[in-house]
Every structure is written in structure tokens, then in C-alpha cells.
């Protein structure tokens, strides 16, 4: 079990879609269509796919030609993959793969042109990024492969109206983000910068664009769930007093309809240099 429910993924998808950097999505789609001799089948492998939000984001992008794309959705959660099949099996060329991502040699990367992920790489370790990048670099000698990675949390969260505990809660939350999520110590807020460094060092062209959640009263259900998630994540942190944290939760929830919340992310695209 990974703890990512269909309800939570559905709740965040609208904010994710608004946040995704259109420019990088467009560039990634361009990369997929870039072969001089167009392929009848172009393989895309979506890591930590959940119910298929990245497939939906690519499909929704204007002028998208989906016909030649063959999606491989990889996740360790069978329920999420079943939901993805229910939603897309009839309309897309797609397969699901129930796998643990940390075994990179088991990933269905044969003939892949683009690896995608969203809201994933802050969960993984430095070692995972290095191994994935090395595998892509190795494959580039046969067939060029790029990486599109959206919504990597960057450690910034700001609220209006302000509360005196905001900074302490954020510090504790960012600390929790580095807890091992099954890959070794998680990159958390360093994910975007670390990926940029590793892919640059291998000679990829790396493009990075901010993609913050900009939430207001229209997102109050998501904001309430986010507040609950943050409170759970920091509850055991000895630097936070339980009564003060409770006060923070109550204050935050009382403003989820009237206040705002900005959560920083970056989107990243790494393409082989020759492109
Ligand atoms: C935050 S969710 C993002 C899901 C989807 N990409 C989205 O944006 O809606 C992270 C996903 O990674 C998957 N995941 C986490 N660790 C994994 C692992 N070791 N192997 C395979 N999937 C994993 C979870 O099951 C979950 O679907």
C-alpha cells in the first residue's frame, strides 16, 4: 500500500492541471512527434502513474495527436491501475504494469521515447534518479529518450491570512518530505534541483519551469485535505506543540474558503542534447 487514494488524486488533479507548465508540456509533445520518419507507435512510459493524470494532461493539450502514442502506465498500486484502465482502455492505446519502480531493470523501457511522471520524484532518492538517468543515457545510444517530470514539490508553501506557526509547520513538513518513501531517503524539496544537476552532467538539455499550485476558495476541499495531510505529517515532530498545532489546523481550516494557499513545484524536461 502506498497511501495514495483515488479520491486524493482526483481532488488534486484540477490544481495540478492548472499548475503544469504549458510550455514544457508543449515541448514534450513536440519531442514525441520529432522523428524525421514518423513512427506508427511511439512509446511513453509513465512512472508512478496513479489513475493516469499525465496521460490525461497530454490528451487535453490542444492539437494533441494521440493516435500514435502507446502509453505504459507503471505503478505498484493495483487499484489505481485498475481505475486507469477503466477510464482509458477504450479511448487510448495503453497498458498497465504493476511494478515497484525501484527495480529499474524491470521497467518496460524497450523502445521508449519519453518517460513521464507527475508528483513522483520528490518521493524518490538521489540513488534512484542517478540510476534512472544512467539507464536513459545508456538507452540513448540506441534510441533517444527524454524525461518529462511535472509537479516536483520545491519546499515553499505560503498562506493568507498568515498564522504565527506557518513557518514552523512548513519546516517540520519539509523535514517529513525527506523521510524514506520506499526508495531510500527521499529528495523532497531538492528533487527538481537534483534532477537538473544529474541530467545536465550527462549532457541532456534540461528545461525547468515553476509550476505552483495557486489555491483559493474554489479549491477549499483540496485545501482542507492538504491541511489535514500536513498536520498528520508533522504531528510527531517534537519541535511542534500539539495544542499549538491544533490551533493552526483550526485557523487554517476556518480560512480555507476565504484565504489563499500557494504550494511551489517545478516541472522539468530533460532531452538528449542532439535534439
Ligand atoms: C503522488 S502519486 C501521483 C500519481 C499520479 N502521477 C498523479 O499525478 O496523479 C504517486 C504515485 O506513485 C506511486 N508509487 C510510489 N512509490 C512507488 C513505487 N516504489 N513503485 C511504483 N509506484 C510507486 C503511488 O502508488 C502513486 O500512484
Uncertain spans: none
Q: Which CATH top level class fits?
A: Alpha Beta
Q: Give, in order, the helices and strands.
A: HHEHEHEEHEHHEEHHE
Secondary structure tally: strands: 8
The CATH topology assignment is: Rossmann fold
Shape label: globular
CATH architecture level-2 label: 3-Layer(aba) Sandwich
Average per-residue pLDDT, rounded, comes to: 95
**Number of domain units:** 1
Describe the main β-sheet briefly. 8 strands, mixed
Secondary-structure-derived class: alpha/beta
Heteromolecules bound: S-adenosylmethionine
The CATH superfamily appears as Vaccinia Virus protein VP39
Kindly report how far apart the N and C termini lie.
39 Å
How many H/I helices?
9
Spatial extent as radius of gyration = 19 Å
Fraction of residues in helix:
25-40%
Report the sheet-strand fraction: 15-25%
Describe the protein in words.
The protein has helices at 6-19, 22-32, 53-60, 78-88, 126-139, 166-176, 191-201, 220-234, 242-254; strands spanning 42-47, 69-75, 93-98, 112-118, 146-160, 205-210, 213-215, 260-271. The N and C termini lie far apart (39 Å). The radius of gyration is 19 Å and the shape is globular. Strand 2, helix 4 and strand 3 form a beta-alpha-beta unit. By secondary structure, it is α/β, with parallel strands linked by helices. It has a single domain (6-155, 179-214, 262-271), classed as Vaccinia Virus protein VP39 (Rossmann fold). The mean pLDDT is 95. 39% of the residues lie in helices and 23% in strands. The longest helix is centred in the C-terminal third of the chain and has 15 residues, at 220-234. Strands 1, 2, 3, 4, 5, 6, 7 and 8 form an eight-stranded mixed β-sheet that branches. Residues 2, 4, 9, 48-50, 53-54, 75-77, 80, 100-102, 118-120, 123, 182 line the site of S-adenosylmethionine.
